[in-house]
Design goal:
By secondary structure, the protein is an alpha+beta fold. It has 10 helices and 4 strands; from the N terminus they run ααβαββαβαααααα.
């Protein structure tokens, strides 16, 4: 299936320097942002604590809810969840106090502040600090192992330069996505980790398609210089890339708009990750391959034939 009746003839690499500046700026801003915020804002899955979803009969004042919770000496986060009457209360019990005791104390304080029958506790989730720390460690290991696996696969499937440029582009996608999560104040939770892993899989698939076409053209069009050959390869796969990216974005956008609060952050992460994953296949991975020191069409064709 083709999106374009005639193969595009866009000189994508003409804009590679602009791409480097744009990507470098976004990456640097994300690093500064993460340092300024003291890292990611971890959800209860990783940070541990007690999460209460409270449904009020009338929309409460969030500062009043926060005052009631803080009056007991609890640190945490209070935010609306979907409708104005739904409030999420994420607290960290004090030392020597159990999660159950903390939950009952918060409920009692809310009763005294808003009235006994003014709200109902819809759900309560409790994650101990040890479990949260274990989940965070396993999450980082999952991303690390997947990245190493991609590096090994691409090095054997294509050539080492393809693997390194793909990993750099992949790290770019992850970092920028984490920056979007941080700047919007979203908590990093298990659903968002699942979204990040999905972005890794999508980005890898996109790079394999482009890399495979470059490898084919290294055999068929060896007389072309490397920038021209890579441009040809990107243009030949652009129809497939646009169709895949568009369909993915339509589905994810539907989840973002109509999937409800539970899927909102997951869909947002996918929107950002898929968008930058498509962009980085051309302006990061392919551009870096062309600018790799000492790389020419002939040398790259010879190294791929040996691998």
């Amino acid at each position: 299936m083709r999106l374009f009746a005639i193969k595009p003839k866009v000189n994508w690499l003409k804009y590679k320097k602009m791409g480097y500046v744009f990507s470098g700026t976004l990456t640097a801003l994300t690093v500064v942002l993460l340092i300024a915020h003291g890292g990611l804002k971890y959800g209860i899955d990783f940070a541990g604590g007690t999460l209460m979803q409270v449904k009020f009969k009338a929309a409460p004042s969030l500062p009043a809810v926060r005052t009631a919770v803080e009056s007991a000496g609890f640190g945490g986060d209070i935010q609306q969840f979907g409708q104005p009457v739904d409030v999420l209360i994420n607290i960290h019990p004090k030392k020597g106090e159990s999660e159950e005791q903390a939950t009952k104390k918060v409920a009692s304080l809310l009763e005294s502040q808003f009235g006994k029958d003014s709200f109902t506790v819809e759900r309560t989730e409790i994650v101990g600090p040890k479990v949260g720390k274990d989940l965070a460690t396993k999450a980082m290991l999952a991303v690390l192992y997947s990245t190493v696996g991609i590096l090994i696969f691409l090095a054997f499937r294509f050539e080492f330069r393809f693997a390194i440029t793909a990993i750099i582009a992949l790290l770019h996608d992850i970092i920028v996505t984490l920056g979007a999560i941080t700047i919007t104040g979203k908590e990093f939770s298990l659903p968002l980790l699942a979204a990040i892993m999905t972005v890794i899989g999508y980005s890898l698939n996109d790079r394999i398609v482009v890399s495979d076409r470059i490898r084919e053209n290294l055999r068929l069009k060896r007389s072309l210089d490397l920038p021209t050959l890579v441009n040809e390869s990107v243009n030949e796969t652009m129809s497939r890339t646009m169709i895949t990216a568009s369909l993915m974005l339509v589905v994810v956008l539907a989840l973002f708009l109509f999937g409800g609060v539970v899927l909102h952050d997951f869909a947002f992460t996918l929107l950002v990750g898929i968008g930058f994953g498509t962009y980085s296949s051309v302006f990061v991975a392919s551009a870096l391959l062309v600018d790799w020191p000492g790389t020419t069409t002939q040398k790259l064709a010879l190294s791929i034939r040996k691998s």
